[in-house]
Amino acid sequence: MPSEKASAIVIRVVEFSETSLVVTLFSREFGKLSALAKGGRRLKGPFESALDLLALCRIVFLRKASDALDLLTEAKLLRRFRPVGHDLSGLYAGYYVAELLGALTDQYDPQPELFDLADETLAALMANEPVAKRVVRFELGALRLLGHMPSLETCVECGKPIGGSGRVAFGQLDGGVLCDRCRGGKKEVASVSVGALKTMLQLADPEGQAWRRMEVDARGLGEVRGLLNRYLTHLLGRKPKMHPYLGLLGN
Question: Which pLDDT tens digit goes with each residue over 210-223?
Answer without folding.
Answer: 888 888 888 888 89
